[in-house]
Amino acid sequence: MADLFEKLLIIRTPKIGPVRYAQLVDKFGSATNVVKNMDVPVGLKDAVAREMDFAQHNNIIYISDDDDLYPSELKCLKNHPPIITVRGNIEVLKKKKVSIVGTRHATATGMGFVADIACAFAENNIAVVSGMAIGTDTAAHRGALRANGNAQTIAVLAGGVDYIWPLENESLYWEIVERGVILSEMPVGFVPVATNFVQRNRWLAGLADKLILGEADLKSGSMITARFAIDFERDVWAIPSHPADLRGLGPNSLIRSGEAKLCLGVQDFFKIVKNDDAKIKNEKKIDSEKSLIDKLGVVPVSESVLAQLVKKTVSEIKADLVVLELQGLVRKVDGGYVRM
Prior knowledge:
The structure is a single chain. The protein is an alpha/beta fold. The protein has three domains: about 1-55, DNA polymerase, domain 1 (Orthogonal Bundle); about 90-270, Rossmann fold (3-Layer(aba) Sandwich), CATH 3.40.50; about 280-340, Arc Repressor Mutant, subunit A (Orthogonal Bundle), CATH 1.10.10.10. It contains 15 helices and eleven strands. The N and C termini lie far apart (about 50 Å).
């Protein structure tokens, strides 16, 4: 504990980041010797003591980079944080991991697609890493939490591990604490500023061997995360989107440049056996319903266009669409219907 206190004194000192921290420890041989040879700012010892006390009473754990629990994927990165804080089920840190990121303004179709992929990874004992933002991140976490068991997902925060943001995701935060883990490099109670999110994105990319990019503008935090993953030589995949949608420019550009592999779904990563799948059974029940499903994809199709495609009247296909929607095979969105 004393060693942890001294490490925190160093890293919590203004103008000392991971690089300077490593230089000082290398120069003096240990955190204890560093503290002996530095001028500790007035009040810092009390501040660190209060932080550690708060952490202890709120089940927040400190993990330094010489601890076996420290994620090996992160440790191999240059200038990695010497100490991280975690809250939740620390067993998740030992698992293989996949990072999934994308825009906060994701479409319903995009979020559903991401959630299905995240669920498949969690079901295959691979933890899903994301940033707990609304949109794609939320879909990734919730998709992972659909899988049975614990230790399914990791949320990397730009603020302190106890700082819940956005507030809309408070319930998700506590679900992750219960069944996954919240992770941060920042002090407990820290309120983030814009620059902290870029650093957070770096760790999002570095924590996993694989990164999947969903919908994302060209100039977005998600694209920054993808660039970090490419620099780290991670296995990068991108989910394509309609070229007229600005949210498709990010993933589409990486696919076109060859920097990311084309992701078309769960089948890219796992063998899918659907012989007993309820959706497949439902699709085969009624020929007219199956014909409708075959005409749908991720781009919304209106009732009038569907009627023309299957050579029926709008009133004739409405009943079939209601049944398919109740079965979870299609969804009504702006502009018509999409296939689930």
